[in-house]
Amino acid sequence: MKRLIFAASFLLVMASCDITIIEPRYDSRDKFVGYYAVEEYSETYNDYTHYSISISKDYNSSYIIYLHNFYGADISVYAQVDYNKITIPYQVVDGYEIEGVGTLSGADINLNYRVKDLYNNSRTDFCEVWADR
User: Fold this and answer.
1) Considering the domain boundaries, does residue 6 fall inside one?
2) At 125, which CATH number?
3) Strand 47-57 relative to strand 64-70, pairing
4) Number of folded domains in the chain?
5) What are 25-61's pLDDT values in tens digits?
6) Domain for residue 104, yes or no?
7) Mean pLDDT to the nearest integer, 3-27
8) What b/e string do you get for 19-42 counting C-beta neighbours within 10 Å, with b at 16 or more?
9) Structural element, H or E, at residue 48
10) Has this prediction a pTM greater than 0.85?
11) Is the distance from CB of 98 to CB of 91 less than 8 angstroms?
């Protein structure tokens, strides 16, 4: 009888307990954040340029990142992340008209985008970029 009362008491105590399971949140942008050495090839001008960029997260959105020193022009553009895919939507930043796409492969990023300098009314520059850590 004592065992039955003990078992019933134990079940009653366990039923009244709250169990909270905390699962870590996965943020696919984390794998993009950091500093990169960039090699940029301009298909328009048939020219290579080297510079560095940094990538940070937008803390007000769960899918936006910022690319700083984009195009080697000391401008910051925003991009949307969907797993390993980057989309740079059409935007005008400091006189540059920009849009493009890219992918993350391991620790390297490959981007294809177009840039038009609106102040100098230059030709649209079509670029391919390889960025590695």
Assistant:
1) no
2) 2.40.128.420
3) antiparallel
4) 1
5) 778 899 999 999 999 999 999 999 999 999 999 999 8
6) yes
7) 66
8) eeeeeeeeeebeebeeebebebeb
9) strand 47-57
10) no
11) yes
